[in-house]
């Protein structure tokens, strides 16, 4: 069933979100603090049975200089430098096996698949820890460190994402002018933040992006992860205003209004995890050239494989794989 507003209303929907006046200053200072640490990229070959791709274990210094792990996959025997995609995964998951997620490298890109810190237990293995503790929170990640903008979990994650673009550009095999950011669900929200924090990325792909229009999402979403916010605020009854003040620095609508890279979005109108209006709130605020695929009878999977086919076609003239 449809989970949100009718499509005609979604196309003109404007989020009530308003960015705090010091949104840009906060993120400038956060990235400047991270820049005090050398990016410290290490690349180690990984033996696999793959015959057409080479795989490497990559680490780089993220927020606080903490080591972030990633897979680098590149087409074998294809001369570089190559266009690159920096890929972020879904909520609670991890980068998984070196043998998974082979589409982008198979299509001619250098693919840097980032392992989101502190996650990796639900669907695919992760190896990146989060050494920063937090105060009381609802189970999951959405309220971790939510007492302040400085301690909030996604401050570290979004900084890791911006640093991931820097790490990709430091690789000899990558053309620094042809780096895109991509992801689905949580990964789409992280990619959207990265596109704003690193404004000269070449392209963005966000499939059913999470972490957008957070106040609305907390009120209408009936499934996790957004229900974590409701669960937290059901007990922290007097912290509603403070909580959403903190979240205003991390809302995808705020990042969308600052990002200018050519962007490809997608959403399923039967998505009961990420309400479609929250994606439209970000999409309609997006500053750059943009396209949105809407799948009327799909849920959180959005267009699935068709989305991949479509975004590969979108990226080809922008990033020119094979040239």
Automatic annotation (TrEMBL):
Key words of the record: Hydrolase
UniProt GO molecular function: carboxylic ester hydrolase activity
Protein name, as recorded: Alpha/beta fold hydrolase
Highest taxon of the lineage: Bacteria
Signal peptide range in chain numbering: none
The keyword Protein biosynthesis is assigned to this record: no
Active site: 185 (nucleophile), 271 (charge relay system), 300 (charge relay system)
PANTHER family, alphabetized: CEPHALOSPORIN-C DEACETYLASE
Entries under InterPro entries matching the protein: AB_hydrolase_fold (IPR029058), AXE1_dom (IPR008391), CE7 (IPR039069)
Domain called Acetyl xylan esterase: residue spans: 2-306
Claim: Hydrolase is one of the keywords in the record: yes
Organism in which the protein naturally occurs: Amycolatopsis carbonis
Binding site for substrate: 91
GO process terms (BP): polysaccharide metabolic process
